[in-house]
Design brief:
15 helices; five-stranded mixed beta sheet; about 400 residues; seven-stranded mixed beta sheet; Nucleotidyltransferase, domain 5
């Protein structure tokens, strides 16, 4: 089938991340590159955020943690999420008075295994995101692109991070190095050397961002998160515990790499808590927050700095631009800002470029949906480790 001629589309990008705290919808107008450009153009039009209710979130987290469930419950959850995502898009469209022509849905990750493990005697790598696309297509009467990660994984990639395509299209600079940091449940970076091509891009998950802090806040304080990082700010970092956790093999493993709740979920939180012994609760939260900051800084020194020196040795400056819910944690951002200042790196957020920190991932999947619709690759092989560029996702049409 002949690919459709690239044209401008108004797309609803839908993201629900590892933290399973809710849904972000971003409406974006995406247009083909002009003759002098090398990447599509994205105009951010607006976004809305929607929190999961307690029962829905509890079921998602239970399944993601590997607790027993039934095939019926898993199917029911996928369809329930489809209904919820459709409602979120409809509400966003109504409030912004904009009608999307296409929806691009990441879905809710319930399992991600980028490293091969034997299953029934055969080494298997796999990933699973749920949320029934047919429900969105029927309710909204527009086509839906979903299930973006498998094509990259099948091509030998990590299936993540996929937000690197947006980073490359929007943030690369002729004379400055830029590192894009996303602070969701998991932290990931995209490294853009000055004047880079897509082949020069490096991206990987550095480790936990908010996931550990949130899990420990729920266990110790019965709160969903540390608002503004206030609890962490009141505590002391337990340095022996921090140094012990920094020896976790993932942090020194070579790139590209990806991780999730499987590596840094409840079991890792339990390990951290056990190491803290009888320490005050606020010290536990301060230590978890410091672990996120320390692993990001370590990843920069270990992997990003050498990559930038190799590909853009004459760049005038390096900037780190952060996004994601973790940017609202003022203690975490202070730790990062102070740590990167010692390395000569200025820290800012995507809000300074007109893209709200909560909307970036949803906007990224709007872009990926546009690429898929036009039969264009959405992964960056140098970022994910895939053997070749791949058209990502599956399309469900409105009947």
């Amino acid at each position: 089938m002949k690919p459709p001629q690239p044209k401008p589309l108004l797309i609803a990008g839908v993201m629900s991340g590892t933290s399973a705290d809710g849904v972000d919808v971003a409406l974006c107008r995406i247009s083909p590159a002009l003759r002098t450009e090398t990447a599509p153009r994205l105009k951010f039009l607006g976004h809305r955020s929607f929190a999961y209710d307690k029962k829905l979130r509890a079921m998602i987290l239970s399944i993601a943690a590997g607790n027993n469930t039934t095939a019926a419950e898993l199917s029911q959850l996928s369809w329930r999420l489809g209904e919820l995502y459709a409602d979120c898009i409809a509400t966003t469209s109504r409030e912004l008075n904009l009608k999307p022509q296409l929806a691009a849905m990441h879905g809710q990750t319930i399992y991600h295994q980028a490293t091969a493990a034997k299953f029934l005697g055969v080494p298997i790598r796999c990933t699973s995101q749920i949320g029934e696309a047919a429900v969105l297509a029927e309710r909204l009467r527009i086509p839906v692109v979903n299930d973006f990660r498998p094509a990259d994984l099948a091509a030998g990639g990590q299936g993540a991070p996929l937000v690197s395509m947006l980073d490359f299209c929007l943030f690369r600079h002729a004379t400055k190095n830029r590192v894009l940091l996303n602070l969701g449940g998991i932290a990931n970076v995209t490294v853009l050397p000055a004047a880079c091509t897509s082949a020069d891009v490096l991206a990987f998950d550095t480790g936990p961002a908010s996931i550990l802090i949130d899990l420990l806040m729920q266990q110790l304080y019965n709160r969903r998160f540390d608002k503004d990082g206030a609890i962490a700010a009141s505590g002391q970092v337990l340095k022996p515990v921090l140094h012990r956790l920094l020896t976790t093999p993932y942090f020194s493993a070579p790139v590209p790499k990806s991780c999730g709740r499987e590596e840094f979920g409840p079991a890792f939180a339990h390990q951290l808590l056990a190491l803290c012994k009888q320490a005050p609760k606020q010290d536990v939260i301060a230590t978890a927050t410091a672990l996120t900051a320390s692993t990001i800084l370590d990843a920069y020194r270990r992997f990003c700095w050498p990559h930038l020196g190799q590909h853009a040795p004459l760049a005038r400056a390096t900037e780190l631009i952060a996004a994601g819910g973790g940017t609202k944690n003022l203690t975490l951002m202070r730790m990062l800002t102070e740590g990167f200042a010692q390395l000569g790196v200025k820290v800012s957020t995507t809000a300074n470029a007109g893209l709200p920190v909560e909307a970036k991932e949803a906007a990224a999947f709007a872009l990926l949906g546009w690429l898929t619709w036009h039969h264009l690759p959405g992964n960056i092989p140098s970022a994910t480790g895939a053997a070749h560029p791949a058209v990502l996702g599956k399309i469900t049409y409105a009947s």
